[in-house]
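It is worth pausing here to work through a concrete case rather than discussing structure prediction in the abstract. The textbook approach is simple: state the sequence, then state the predicted structure, then interpret. We follow exactly that order.
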Amino acid sequence: MRTRILISILIFTNLILFYSILFVALMKNFEGKSYTVIDGFYWVVSTITTVGYGDIHFTTQPGKIFSILVMVSGVLYFFGFFVPYVVIPWAEQRFRLVYPTKISGLQNHIIVCGYNLYTEEFCKMLEEFRIPYVVLEKNVERLRHGINKGLKVVQSDGSLESFKENGVERATAILIAWRELEDIIDTLLTIKDFESRKYVIYGDHRYSRYLYYAGAEKVFLPKSLIASSIARTILGEVKVGRMTKLLENLYVSEIIIPEKMTVSDLEKEGVKIISVCRLGQLALNPPPTHQLEKGCIAIVAGDKRAIESVIYEGAHPRLR
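Step two, the predicted structure:
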């Protein structure tokens, strides 16, 4: 918080200093009046705070435009930067807003440790499959951001008690995506006695073997990571043309698109397209108007009958 305050003061001071010098130059060149930097400082502060006493003012067009710029800058600074960046976080710390720490009654769910872009997309895919999950997050800002996104995020200190409160003994898998290596290893050691499969997202491949030693079943590297690869590994590997059962009456399969069509054309068969890949380009949750080119691979989900309606017997599927 102290850093935020210092940054905001530094930005505000530099802004006022810059406008003060510009004020002196504009007054001399366009108004024909001489003012000191102190006069400029006084005018800028009264204008940028929208007080505007009117004892010093511009009469020329360039001067009026400059005045408008200063006033708009003041409004944008205070309400677009200072309030959300400094005042609101300070108020939250001051009044200690209480965030949820657990989700009760979870069964056969997935625990995600850490909220980020990868886990956000992964959780959206879990919601598509209607698979229960909970995201544990230590950082209040990321916690609030995840909640605002509509995800099931709770505050956690990473302790064994926190995992037990969120049903670690009943979880089918745990995806650990803390930012710090120490937190990841600490979590792996904390939950080592539980049978749930443990997966890790960490950016430095040099530490992968240590994470495996600590109990990770698989380590994902963010540079080559896509949410669908996490989902496919955790929910069950699928093979082209073969169905894999995820939950009761929910199957997933990869199919090769036999001809050009749109997503809506394929989804009329009762399946849901999770992702489409063509020439190395991946599209997650493509919109109904998205064009599917012949030969691209799509991951589809649905009930057994719907999946069978778009798969031909054998390894090379086609639409019937």
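Step three, interpretation. The chain is about 45% helix and 20% strand. The radius of gyration is 28 Å.
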